[in-house]
Design brief:
Shape: globular
Helix content: 40-55%
Structural class: alpha/beta
Oligomer: single chain
Number of helices: 6
Radius of gyration: 17 Å
Number of domains: 1
Strand order of the largest sheet: 3-2-1-4-5-6-7
CATH class: Alpha Beta
CATH superfamily: NAD(P)-binding Rossmann-like Domain
Largest sheet: 7 strands, parallel
CATH topology: Rossmann fold
Length: 242
């Protein structure tokens, strides 16, 4: 790890939802390595504390904050705390996600549908609503929404998850047009099969799947890109089909 101002994100603040494990933890760790003060949030204090401890032990700056992105009051409290503590956020990674891959849509209970949509889609709306005004005031920022290859392809027994990610893509494209005039870049990242707790792994070779660090590398590319351009969408696939 390099030190001080030589790191490209030195002095920047990054907020990562679902930052305590899996893809979110890998993204948080990488942003901290690049010099950002990283705020990780999620619903489990223990998971967040363990991730934050690992990041700080490696020389990064990280703070854990509880937030349930499906609850607007929780999101607003997080945003107020970030504003008060750090003066705003330069990078927002909307990574928190849930899914159910055990049954077809006609057998899915409404409360499961609501949980998936409220976290994966409504939660991103809440986060952008809370954090975009800070970025507008600063006249800069990166918002990165972690979608899925399920936003491109059919996903039998995962229709609610797919619907949330197709919706997230449409949200991302539209918000990118709304915010680019303020020098805020919005990118949607669509990873294929990834070795994480969320992905359905049945019948797939785990050794050929993407790793959370692969997604973190894409986020690194996005936030270190020259300011006059941005990638509006990145589809990330494993080299070998799992």
């Amino acid at each position: 790890m390099t030190h001080g101002g030589t790191r490209p994100l030195h002095g920047k603040v990054a907020v990562v939802t679902g930052g305590g494990r899996g893809i979110g933890e890998a993204i948080s760790r990488r942003l901290a390595e690049l010099g950002a003060t990283t705020v990780i949030c999620g619903r489990s204090q223990q998971t967040l504390d363990e991730a934050a401890q690992a990041i700080t032990s490696a020389g990064g700056r990280c703070e854990a904050m509880i937030c349930d992105v499906s609850q607007p009051n929780s999101v607003e409290a997080l945003a107020a705390r970030v504003q008060t503590t750090f003066g705003g956020s330069d990078i927002l990674v909307n990574n928190a996600g849930v899914g159910d891959f055990a049954r077809p849509l006609h057998q899915l209970p409404p409360e499961i549908w609501d949980g998936i949509i409220n976290t994966n889609l409504r939660g991103v709306y809440y986060m952008i609503r809370a954090f975009a005004p800070m970025m507008i005031q600063a006249a800069r920022g990166d918002i990165i929404n972690i979608s899925s290859i399920a936003s491109k392809n059919p996903l039998p027994n995962g229709a609610a998850y797919a619907a949330s990610k197709w919706g997230l893509n449409g949200l991302s494209y539209s918000v990118a047009e709304e915010l680019r005039r303020y020098n805020i870049r919005v990118t949607v990242v669509c990873p294929g099969s990834t070795r994480s707790e969320l992905s359905p792994h049945e019948g797939k070779d785990a050794l050929k799947m993407l790793r959370p660090s692969d997604v973190a590398h894409v986020v690194e590319m996005i936030v270190t890109q020259a300011s006059q351009s941005f990638a509006s969408e990145i589809v990330l696939r494993p080299t070998q089909k799992p």
